[in-house]
Design goal:
By secondary structure, the protein is an alpha/beta fold. The chain is about 40% helix and about 10% strand.
Length: about 250
């Protein structure tokens, strides 16, 4: 794992800033075809979380690097934990943050198969705790349009135009040759949960990575940073735009 993905804060840094919102990237360790690394979803979640932390007064946490990737079990290298375990990990992190004075937690999810994260947020919110899940599908759709991503969110399911673009921008050294000719289409995936990814792709790719570019990746992240403003306001009651000075007192 790239050490730059781990925040270098000291305890005094955190004390001095006094931020009341923490951001937790959650990814996975699963196949992303022959040209993107197993850590792709974690890299994407960290890139989004870092973009947010650069623009808003939030406490950036290190990533949860293994999630629920059972649909990818047919490919070597994929590792999963149970939904129960991921639920417990996020709950424990939120509880620990509250004990240290950080009342709000935003989970930045980089893997669509981490369905249980939505349940964590629902249950916590019902108890009066302040949790949010980001980005929402609507945030991704806004980002897709702003960045000029051609592929729809349905078609761009895995290792496609969006993920390839973000890595080409944020971590080009992790992208291997081959994405230019790896497009695969499988829009009808109604039995994905029962059959897994191997029923719909032999390469592990579903989407159009050939259309990926670093420029699109940059715009995708910038759009998501803009969209985070609503999430931040929801948790804090404070309106912040990306042009404001990061590191305020919220």
């Amino acid at each position: 794992m790239d050490v730059s993905l781990v925040p270098a804060d000291t305890s005094e840094d955190v004390r001095e800033r006094g931020h009341k919102v923490a951001v937790l990237p959650v990814g996975s360790y699963e196949q992303h075809g022959p040209y993107l690394p197993l850590a792709t979803d974690t890299l994407v979640a960290c890139a989004v979380a870092r973009e947010v932390a650069d623009a808003y007064p939030v406490h950036l946490l290190p990533p949860v690097t293994i999630g629920c990737s059972h649909e990818h079990a047919g490919w070597p290298g994929t590792v999963s934990i149970s939904a129960v375990t991921l639920h417990a990990v996020v709950r424990d992190i939120a509880d620990s943050l509250r004990r240290s004075g950080i009342e709000a937690l935003v989970v930045v999810n980089g893997h669509g198969g981490n369905y249980v994260l939505g349940n964590v947020v629902q249950e916590s919110s019902a108890r009066g705790e302040r949790l949010a899940l980001f980005p929402a599908a609507e945030d991704w759709e806004t980002a897709r349009r702003r960045a000029g991503v051609v592929t729809s969110l349905l078609t761009d399911m895995h290792a496609g135009e969006i993920e390839t673009s973000i890595l080409l921008h944020a971590h080009p050294e992790w992208v291997r040759p081959g994405y230019e000719a790896a497009d695969c289409f499988a829009d009808d995936r109604r039995h994905l949960l029962s059959l897994g990814m191997s029923a719909y792709t032999t390469s592990g790719v579903i989407g159009r990575p050939s259309l990926g570019s670093a420029e699109k990746g940059k715009e995708l992240l910038a759009s998501l940073a803009d969209s985070f403003a609503e999430c931040f306001a929801l948790l804090t009651g404070v309106t912040v735009t990306v042009s404001d000075e990061a590191g305020g007192d919220a």
